[in-house]
Write a structure and sequence with these properties.
With 210 residues, the chain is an alpha+beta fold. The chain has 2 domains: 4-119, no CATH class; 121-196. It has 7 helices and 12 strands. The protein has helices spanning 35-40, 56-71, 84-87, 106-115, 148-158, 172-180, 204-207, and strands at residues 4-8, 13-14, 17-18, 27-28, 45-49, 75-79, 121-126, 129-134, 141-145, 184-187, 190-193, 196-197. The strands form 4 sheets. The protein has a 4-stranded mixed β-sheet, covered by helices on one side. The model is unreliable at 13-25 and 203-210 (pLDDT under 50). Residues 1-24 are annotated as: Disordered. Pfam families: DUF5825.
Length: 210
């Protein structure tokens, strides 16, 4: 589970990153942070404490929350559960997210930080199609989806923190396609959509104190 989300206002940011301190300026004790409400309230940076997210469903919720916060333009820092690499051996699938500040050995954390770039995995919706940009690999990949089943699946999955085979819009064919493409992460019977729908690009002038 997510123990807490520490939210920071623009005036509390420094050029070296948010000064979260202890205790944090604000604590939002909810499993899934209300991203829109945090942004509307004036917050621009968050620290998500996910060290308790050892269960499959909790880890999916954690990754979905990071996905949504990052896509909304927040500066994100987070703590991962100690079991992260056991659950996700191929951690490069997650390098569209900032490297966590706990839960990794020093070498993996350094490699993850070197690979991370904002917007490495994102999707956009156009008239009758969805385009997915995946830059987690050196070559990069662009997928253009037009199949109705795939379009419906992406929109529903990306708006959900964790989903299981019993949801009405679950489609075996779509799961297979997107799992093979590294866009859906499956942990036991729980699944999470990894690509963020970018609605707002981070503006450095918003993320640094004057």
């Amino acid at each position: 589970m997510i123990s807490a989300t520490y939210a920071v206002r623009p005036e509390q940011l420094t050029t070296d990153g948010p000064d979260l301190g202890l205790p944090p300026p604000n604590t939002v004790p909810q499993d899934v942070p209300d991203v829109a409400a945090l942004w509307k309230a004036g917050y621009r940076a968050v620290f998500v404490d996910g060290r308790d997210g050892t269960a499959a469903a909790d880890l999916c919720r954690l990754l979905a929350s990071l996905r949504d916060l990052e896509s909304a333009g927040f500066r994100v820092r987070w703590a991962a559960p100690a079991t992260l690499l056991d659950r996700v051996p191929d951690w490069t699938l997650l390098t569209h997210l900032p490297a966590p500040e706990s839960g990794l050995d020093d070498r993996t954390q350094a490699e993850w930080r070197a690979l991370y770039r904002f917007g490495r995995l994102r999707w956009f919706k156009g008239p009758g199609f969805i385009k997915i940009h995946d830059q987690r690999c050196d070559a990069g990949l662009v997928l253009t989806l037009t199949d109705h089943v795939h379009l419906h699946f992406v929109e529903r999955a990306s708006g959900t923190s964790v989903f299981r085979p019993d949801v009405s819009w679950y489609a075996d064919e779509a799961i297979e396609v997107f799992h093979d493409a590294g866009l859906v992460l499956s942990l036991d019977d729980d699944h999470v959509w990894l690509a963020g729908r970018v609605r707002r690009w981070s503006n450095p002038s918003q993320l640094m104190a004057p």
